[in-house]
Amino acid sequence: MTVKPIFRVAKPGKSAFSSDVRDFLLDERYSMFKYHLNTTASVILNAGDTEASSTISHGLGYVPAFIVYYKRSDESVERILPDIPYGVDFDFYPWAYATSSGITVGYAYKEPYNRIVVPADAFYYEFFFDGVGLVVGNAGGGGKSTSVRIPSIPLNRNETINSAVLEFTRVFSGPNNGNTKYRIYGMNQDHVTGFDLGNPKTSAYNAREQSSVSGTWNFESGCVDQVREIIARSGWSYGNNMGFILNDDGSESGRYIGATNSTTAKLTITKPGSLTVQFRVIVFKDKIA
Amino acid sequence: MTVIPKLKIALPGKSAFSSEPRDYAFNSEYATVRIFKEGSGSVAVNSGGNATVTVPHNLGFVPMSTVYVELAPGRYYCGVGLASRADGFPGGYLSVSPNPNETYVDTANLVFRINNTSGSTRTVNYRYYIFADDGI
């Protein structure tokens, strides 16, 4: 008869002959993860970034098992990866992977960090081509203008912002080669509801010239001073509507920016600040691949 | 006087009488996480589709477990999750579903689902660990 020795350490109060695997501190039948490395890493996302990552080397030459914890600089808790929400959009999340040379940890944002994008919900076009509006420029015998409303702006009064850009998508240039001249104003109001081209204007404006572009393109115009002036108003509140007016500024005939049936507009605001994410990485000697 | 035996293995340079739990390779005063079952495999996942992997353990209780999945060539991500932007998010990518009806462990099985929006059929490698300890 062959006797095969077994090495086990039962938990206090448990039998060494128990059939329940949970009753043992140590059991030669079941291996344990072997500790290899315990270290930290951190990444920084600046305004406008969508991802930041860092890699630590483990020197094992194969892909090891690992565990990662992380902590955002704007939170007080440590979390273990994975930390993926269910039932909501993946707006931001941590990630980590192992290769044969290192562990890479990172943090991703679906949209750029500290960047807000708010779509327009209403337009006022002074001029139409076959039912489609003209954004700004000279057509139909003279300069034509447009105004647009951006609803529910998520900015507090006097909140610091780095930049603001108003963008019209899928526009086209007029038939005559040359610059469209225009001025972009904000609507100097606490909260824009009804609007046309007669709404009061901000003192801040930008006078610009847009060259002709072939095909369909996206038209951007910076407006940070206008946004700052509006949110500095005593009556401004978080979530109020904001409006902008684009006035033709002496464009020559046939120089204009026209909308298409699929043209949309949005306001993109970038706030200052950065996010630091600290990671603790625990690497085991156990081989995954 | 009752004597309670203890088994301790101190780490190199540390004392077997230390009160710091981190000074031990093994200490019978602290439970360990033992690997009950481990294994590797691969599964083909069509673009736009998914594949479910079921690993039986039949422990009769819900154990701790973890899965590493190769969401990009040579890159094994841990557990439920998404790849980095470099590996496809938010465009086409592989992922392990966070839906609790699709990725879970119960008293009999470890189940996880791999989703593929990468634009091509992928053969996905994985490794799993089921531990001999309660997960809940």
Report on this structure.
The complex is a heterodimer of chains A (289) and B (136). Chain A has 1 helix and 22 strands. Chain A has 289 residues and is mainly β. In chain A, strand 7 (92-98) and strand 8 (102-109) form a beta hairpin. The model of chain A has no long low-confidence stretch (mean pLDDT 93). Chain B is built from no helices and 11 strands. Chain B has strands at 8-10, 24-27, 35-45, 50-56, 63-72, 75-78, 81-82, 94-96, 104-105, 109-116, 122-134. In chain B, strands 4, 7, 8, 9 and 10 form a 5-stranded antiparallel beta sheet that branches. In chain B, strands 3-11-5-6 form a 4-stranded antiparallel beta sheet, with no helix packed on it. Classes of the chains: A mainly beta (289), B mainly beta (136). The A-B interface holds A 9, 11-12, 21-22, 24-27, 30-33, 50-51, 53, 63, 65-68, 81-82, 84-86, 90, 93, 95-100, 104, 106, 108, 110, 288-289 and B 4, 7, 26, 28, 30-36, 40, 59, 61, 66, 68, 70-72, 74-86, 89-90, 96, 98-100, 125, 127, 129, 132-134.
Summarize it.
The complex is a heterodimer of chains A (289) and B (136). Chain A is mainly beta.
Number of helices of chain B: 0
Mean pLDDT of chain A: 93
Largest sheet properties of chain B: 5 strands, antiparallel
- What is the terminal-to-terminal distance of chain A? 39 Å
Assembly category: heterodimer
Q: Which protein chains are joined by the largest interface, and how many residues does each one contribute?
A: A-B, 40 and 44 residues
Spatial extent as radius of gyration of chain B: 20 Å
Number of strands of chain B: 11
Q: How much helix is in the residues of chain B?
A: under 10%
- Low-pLDDT runs of 5+ residues of chain A are none
Class derived from helix and strand content of chain A: mainly beta
Overall pLDDT score of chain B? 90
Our estimate of the beta-strand percent of chain A is over 45%
Please outline the major beta sheet of chain A: 8 strands, antiparallel
Spans where pLDDT lies below 50 across 5 or more residues of chain B:
none
Q: What is the 3D form of chain A? A: elongated
- Measured between the Cα atoms of the first and last residue of chain B, the distance is 37 Å
Number of strands of chain A: 22
Approximate strand percentage of chain B: over 45%
Helix % of chain A is: under 10%
